Amino acid sequence: MKVFCCFTPAHEILFSGYFQPSLPSDFEVRSTLLDLKGAGDFYSKEFMECIRRKIDLIVRSMEENDGQVILWSDVDIIYLESTAADLKAIYEASGKEVLFQAEGPKTTEVNTGFIVCRASPAMADFFREVGARLAADPGKNEQAVVNDMLREGAKVSWGTLPLEYYARTHGWPAPDNIRIYHANYTAGKDGIGQKIQQFREMRAIRRYGMVAKLWFGLGKVPKKLKRIAGR
Q1: Which residue ranges does the record assign to the Nucleotide-diphospho-sugar transferase domain (predicted)?
Q2: Which residues are within 8 A (CB) of 33 and not within 5 positions of it... i.e. 6 or more apart?
Q3: Which fold has domain 2-170?
Q4: Which residues, listed in sequence order, are joined to residue 78 by a DSSP beta bridge?
């Protein structure tokens, strides 16, 4: 399965240090480095420009891969147990045109950082409409626009992936059986540093299990765990 992503120079450390090394071998990476300067923090000027260019790239991927099941993934994601074969099986069983990551367990909102679909003219049209709405309302990001369209009754059949396709907005600490981990929920300064810290915490949890979960859940991290998480 082809996995598409785009990122700015500020996010390249996430791509090369975390995202790409975690990908199982049955994913075929199609990455685009966008020439945008800045720290890449959430809702920054370069962040907003990045998501507009991302939508253009998504439309192109729909046109150039008609009929194929493809994945669009943010690079602040690590792959833990999910292979392309697993993801495709879940998608095919759903009977939907597109599956999004859920934003959380108690909301109908979707997260547009992880999208699996079959490329088609209908999906290209869907994302063209996303792009048009972004152009008309520069203060919105693509996730808000997509959720608006889904609530309004978009002309594509859609669903959400199982909660094992996990994001920080699902709750913390993460359970054991997750397939991916999406380091979202990083508003404010040093968004990249916040994401890297989330990955380090996940590394400690996977190494030390319940002990690490208890400490992170309490907000008290022993020095030994801090050292491990920092490696």
Answers
A1: 36-190
A2: 6, 7, 8, 9, 12
A3: Spore Coat Polysaccharide Biosynthesis Protein SpsA; Chain A (3.90.550)
A4: 181
Q: Where are any strands of DSSP class E within the chain?
A: 2-7, 28-33, 69-73, 77-79, 98-102, 110-118, 158-160, 165-167, 180-182
- Encode pLDDT of 33-77 as tens digits: 999 988 777 767 888 889 999 999 999 999 999 999 999 999 999
Contact 46, 38 (CB under 8 A): yes
The CA-atom distances, in angstroms, between 38 and each of 11, 51, 141, 171, 177 are 10, 14, 18, 29, 36
**What gap in Å lies between CA 2 and CA 30, rounded to an integer?**
7
Instruction: Tell me the domain boundaries of the chain.
Output: 2-170, 180-229
Q: What is the DSSP string of 110-158?
A: EEEEEEEEE--HHHHHHHHHHHHHHHH-TT--HHHHHHHHHHHT-SS-E
